[in-house]
Amino acid sequence: MEHVEYVYTFGMDETELEGKLRDANTGVLSLARDSDSYAVPVSFHYDGRRLLLRFGVEEGGEKMSFLEGTGTASFVVYEAAGDESWSILVRGHLEPASESLDDAAINERFVPLRVFGESISDVEPELYELRMESVTGRKT
């Protein structure tokens, strides 16, 4: 493949990782159950020690079924514009958030909840914490 273009990437230090996680607000969560996978964009908030994910949950939803079957989840946050890019991969276990937030605090920390064809009254926001067991970042 002599005509394929390449761009070198480099690791990000802890300060860069923390800054990108604090500034971003959405990423892609990957879950697995048996031999099936499920990936979904979700809103998140990083406060310097915890990574909170906000889900819109409806009864019988596929997301929660996969969440219950996943041992270790992967979460990707990234940005790419031309040759400039960065990405962060967080791996760990998901569990319900240990603290609850009122509506005002949720609105302050997260982008508006995206609803896809469901009735708003059928969707309940729930917070989960991704226990960050590994965090790696790359940049160009």
Q: What can you see in these coordinates?
A:
- The radius of gyration is 16 Å and the shape is globular.
- It has three helices and seven strands; from the N terminus they run βαβββαββαβ.
- The protein is 18% helix and 47% strand.
- The model has no long low-confidence stretch (mean pLDDT 91).
- It has a six-stranded antiparallel barrel with strand order 2-3-4-7-6-5.
- The chain has one domain (10-139): Electron Transport, Fmn-binding Protein, Chain A (Pnp Oxidase, Chain A).
- The longest helix is centred in the N-terminal third of the chain and has 10 residues, at 14-23.
- With 140 residues, the protein is α+β, with helices and mostly antiparallel strands.
Chain-wise SSE layout:
Layout: E1 10-11, H1 14-23, E2 26-33, E3 36-46, E4 51-57, H2 62-69, E5 73-81, E6 84-96, H3 103-109, E7 124-139
Antiparallel strand pairs: 1-7, 2-3, 2-5, 3-4, 4-7, 5-6, 6-7
> How do the strands line up in the largest sheet?
2-3-4-7-6-5
Biggest sheet layout:
6 strands, antiparallel, barrel
Query: Would you tell me the overall average pLDDT?
Result: 91
Q: DSSP helix count? A: 3
- CATH class descriptor: Mainly Beta
Q: How large is the share of residues in beta strands?
A: over 45%
Q: Spans of 5+ residues with little confidence (pLDDT < 50)?
A: none
- The name of the CATH topology is Pnp Oxidase, Chain A
Structural class: alpha+beta
Instruction: Compute the CA-based radius of gyration.
Output: 16 Å
Query: Helix and strand string, N-terminal first?
Result: EHEEEHEEHE
- Per CATH, the architecture is Roll
N-C termini distance: 21 Å
* Fourth-tier CATH superfamily name: Electron Transport, Fmn-binding Protein, Chain A
Outline: globular
> Percentage of helical residues?
10-25%
Number of DSSP strand runs: 7
- Give the number of domains: 1
